[in-house]
Amino acid sequence: MDTASHVVMGVGIAGLATLDPVIAENPATMQAVAIGAIIGSQAPDFDTVLKMKNNASYITNHRGATHSIPAVLLWSIVISVVIYLFLPAASLFHLWIWTFLAVAIHVFVDIFNAYGTKALAPIKNKWIAIGSINIFDPFMFILHIAGMLLWLAGMDPGYTFLSIYMILAVYYVWRMKVRNGVIRHARRLHPHATHIFISPTYRWSEFHLVIRTQDYLHVATWKKKSIHYLESYLFEPIPNDPIIEAALEDQNLSAFLSFSPTYRWGIEEYPFGYDVIFTDLRYRSAGYYPFVSVVRLNRDLTITGSYTGWIYDLEKLEYKLQTSRRSKKKKRARLLNAT
């Protein structure tokens, strides 16, 4: 989910925690738990700081190790201990329980969108992306805002958020049922499909689909209880091509391939060399696929620039490639000076 959704969920968990008698009777514990729930609901996404390094590190690691089973335990322990140092009158055990719940719910809800997480790592080191809830779900967000307003108006926060989470449990079951129905329909139309990738939208009745068969990649939408095809491409595995193989050495492209399960690739030739372009087909917006990885090589197949991320205009892409080129030149210069 997005940051705003995790924040309101942290507040919701803090409200729910007032049902715990130990918390209700101890102001210090209540304060500590409220802080722990809000911080815990954000903690798995602290890996966002990797963006400061580069996009490749962020894409490769975001929702990976920080959302794993050991991380859920570690986040809750570290956050609880730090808070307890400032509020020693609080119950450390109850602080840890509710902080743990906040971290665990963060990871749990993230598996339902199209990005997914490595929630079962290290038991299963694979992405789990169910694709039934949008990364920002207006219904869930509005319910939490309503709960917060009722809390401010004097309603009991514990029973208010208990009611909200019971509604959301039913909501999640319903969204899973709808999602599964869409996939069943797609499989009836493509019984030999090898993969079906599904992404929810802001609208409950619409999904984005990529249906992969042995020969084709079909990009489609589910709308008005039927599948509407947008584009179909030949399914072409990555070839043993010297240009492609050179591009595969780039960390930005490696990050893209570690994250994207369905894509198209292409090579564009220029006087200076080549652009190797990989396009993620899951994210289609206004007839355009904005999530790409581009590796630029000269005629000697030396990588001169690369970029992986969201691009909505070619000028921005060219700027990113030129910035990457300057960065690579500086890095090579430092290596030469070091030797």
- The termini sit apart by 46 Å
In total, the number of domains comes to 2
Series of secondary-structure elements, N-terminal to C-terminal: HHHHHHHHEEEEHHEEEEH
Helical fraction equals 40-55%
Radius of gyration: 23 Å
Compute the number of helices: 11
- Structural class of the secondary structure composition? alpha+beta
Oligomer: single chain
- Largest pleated sheet: 4 strands, antiparallel
Instruction: State the strand order across the main sheet.
Output: 1-2-3-4
**Number of separate strands:** 8
What portion of the residues fall into strands of 2 or more residues?
15-25%
Residue-averaged pLDDT, rounded?
92
The shape, in one word, is globular
Low-confidence stretches: none
Transmembrane segments: 69-87, 93-115, 127-152, 158-174
GO molecular function, one term: hydrolase activity
Pfam family, one: YdjM
InterPro entries: Transcription_regulator, YdjM-like
Structural commentary:
GO terms for molecular function: hydrolase activity. It comes from Salicibibacter kimchii. This protein has 339 residues and is of the alpha+beta class. The chain folds into 2 domains: 3-175, no CATH class; 242-338, no CATH class. It contains 11 helices and 8 strands. The strands form 2 sheets. A 4-stranded antiparallel beta sheet has the order 1-2-3-4, covered by helices on one side. Strands 5-6-7-8 form a 4-stranded antiparallel beta sheet. A hairpin with a 6-residue loop joins β1 (195-200) and β2 (207-212).
